[in-house]
Specification:
By secondary structure, the chain is α/β, with parallel strands linked by helices. It folds into 4 domains: 112 residues, Rossmann fold, CATH 3.40.50.720; 179 residues, NAD(P)-binding Rossmann-like Domain (Rossmann fold); 136 residues, 60s Ribosomal Protein L30, Chain: A, CATH 3.30.1330; 75 residues, 2-Layer Sandwich (Alpha-Beta Plaits), CATH 3.30.70. It contains 18 helices and 22 strands. Strands 8-7-6-9-10-11-12 form a 7-stranded parallel sheet, sandwiched between helices. A 6-stranded mixed sheet has the order 14-13-15-16-17-18, with helices on one face. It has a 5-stranded parallel sheet with strand order 2-1-3-4-5. Helix 11 links the parallel strand 10 and strand 11. Helix 5 crosses helix 7, helix 14 crosses helix 15 and helix 15 packs across helix 16. The longest helix is centred in the middle third of the chain and has 19 residues. It starts with a strand and ends with a strand.
């Protein structure tokens, strides 16, 4: 018999499958302190929590029989993932359970902002019968721009089509073929900003998406835009939005999330006549709370019965003899994926990986997971992608994974080649471990280099002409950007070349723009590892 401890309030319906299982005993003991949990956890095979219980390293160490910790929700910040991984304890969550409820809340907010429902309600219950001030707009026939076509964004698009809206979608992994299947128009952020009547965001908050809608976007935005954010605070620049609303560019906005929660009492959203807000209610339905518990319960049962499972958020155990070979390459693999994902243009359709040398003799699936995590994390966020769910997320986004092996590694004992393909480009990077130097990038596309994959990098494509290196160094120095290391690669004298600069701090985008304006310099791209 397996013993499962439920240490936070979770509905009976949510854990019914565990309760009904003939080989499982479920005990509910909410409100335990860390010491109390440590004292009893040794007799349990599984632990189910929400956000209240803190599953610390002490708890993991005391859980001698613990095989899995299930989080009935998305966030796992109350669980020590490193301690769980070290002890071979699988941690799972329920990322899909709130898809529909967040989608429906998005639609509720969209309709509320289109018809001024909260404002009209306040006036009506206040004793004023004011019909003239609240003339709204129909959804039918309007262009809806969806930024982020993952699970929630796709469900929003599906429902918006039923309302007669035209859907323009943006996602870094959205291909023409998938957009066609969804019945939407594949668009860029700029296309949506300039043409949409409504816009809703469903991307994770990453350095790439932070303030992706800010003053430059509002300056070219179609006048009368209505904006909904039920994703993450910070994707839309709140102060810039208020300015755009005051200027009449934005006709209305509906926000369920804030950059800082709860918002300050003087936050401009709270009293703005064009902005409606809710206190992060996207996942707050009875059904969603039950669904996440049901999802986790099913996966816990699969793990206990040694059946296939999904939604693990830490790395499963690797045999010791394989781990000793692979471990030095974990960080390199993720960095290679991240590096090349920042180079590629267009939606990634294929990730092609080739392991050469000694690596071809062992199971490299864990390294592939790190590579895919590096590729996806750039767009989805490191907190959303891990080495267990990376392959699942790639499959969801119709990204094909191809893995090859070569017994001989050219010039190196081992090498890893990562090639990304999209409709418009193919980019490649090769990495290895150099004795005494550690992880290195040794080739970018067709250019040989020797670069440590860390920190802030600037990749410059240029013509091999005298004075280029000096002019680049001078421009960066004049703008306060110090060069820590430099590598230059070229094919032929006087032909195409690249320059990889390691710099002490992030270069501002206007500095990158100035680089491109230098004579014989073709492109400049900042890469963060």
């Amino acid at each position: 018999m397996f013993k499962v401890l439920v240490s936070d309030p979770i509905s009976d319906l949510g854990i019914q499958k565990l309760v009904d299982a003939e080989d499982v005993v479920v005990e509910k003991k909410p409100g335990l302190s860390e010491d109390e949990l440590v004292a009893i956890i040794g007799e349990y095979d599984a632990l189910l929590v929400r956000s209240q219980t803190r599953v610390t390293a002490r708890v993991m160490e005391a859980g001698k029989s613990l095989k899995v910790v299930g989080r009935a929700g998305v966030g796992v910040d109350n669980i020590d993932l490193e301690a769980a991984t070290q002890r071979g304890i699988i941690v799972i969550n329920a990322p899909d359970g709130n898809t529909i409820t967040t989608c429906e809340h998005t639609f509720a907010m969209m309709m509320a902002v289109a018809r001024h429902i909260p404002q009209a309600y306040l006036k009506t219950v206040g004793g004023e019968w004011d019909r003239k001030s609240f003339v709204g707009v129909e959804l039918r026939g309007k262009i809806l721009g969806v930024l982020g076509m993952g699970r929630i964004g796709s469900e929003v698009a599906k429902r918006a089509k039923a309302f007669g809206m035209e859907i323009w979608g943006y996602d870094p992994f959205l291909t023409e073929e998938r957009a066609e299947k969804l019945g939407i128009r594949l668009s860029s952020v700029d296309d949506i900003v300039r043409n949409a009547d409504f816009m809703t965001v469903h991307t994770p908050l990453t350095p790439e998406t932070r303030h992706m809608i800010s003053r430059p976007q509002f300056e070219v935005m179609k006048k009368g835009m209505r904006i909904v954010n039920c994703a993450r605070g910070g994707i839309i620049d709140e102060h810039a939005l208020v300015e755009a609303a005051d200027q009449g560019i934005v006709a209305g906005a509906a926000f369920d999330v804030f950059e800082s929660e709860p918002p300050a009492a003087d936050h401009p959203f709270l009293k703005h006549p064009k902005i409606i807000v809710t206190p992060h209610l996207g996942a707050s339905t009875v059904e969603a709370q039950e669904n996440v518990a049901i999802d986790v319960s099913e996966q816990v049962l699969n793990i206990l019965r040694d059946k296939p499972f999904i939604n693990a958020v830490n790395m499963p155990p690797i045999p010791a003899n394989v781990l000793s070979i692979l471990q030095p390459y974990f960080s390199l693999s993720e960095k290679l994926g991240s590096f090349v994902s920042q180079l590629i243009e267009g939606a990634v359709e294929e990730i092609n990986v080739t392991y050469a040398g000694d690596l071809s003799e062992v199971d490299t699936q864990p390294l592939t997971r790190y590579i895919v995590r590096g590729v996806l994390s750039h767009h989805l966020g490191a907190d959303q992608v891990n080495v267990v769910n990376s392959m699942h997320l790639a499959k969801e986004r119709h990204v094909n994974i191809v893995v090859n092996s070569l017994h001989a590694a050219r010039d190196f004992t081992n090498s890893i080649t990562v090639t990304l393909r999209s409709k418009v480009a193919t980019r490649q990077v090769i990495g290895t471990m150099l004795t005494g130097y550690g992880p290195r990038i040794v080739q970018i596309d067709r250019f040989t280099v020797d670069v440590a994959p860390e920190g802030n990098l600037i990749l410059v494509s240029h013509n091999d002409k005298p004075g280029i290196i000096g002019s680049v160094g001078t421009l960066l120095g004049d703008n306060g950007v110090n060069i820590a290391a430099m590598q230059v690669g070229r094919e032929l004298q006087g032909g195409s070349a690249i320059m990889v600069l390691t710099v002490d701090k992030i270069a501002h985008q206007d500095v990158i723009a100035k680089l491109v304006q230098l004579p014989d310099l073709n492109k400049a791209k900042e890469i963060k590892l």
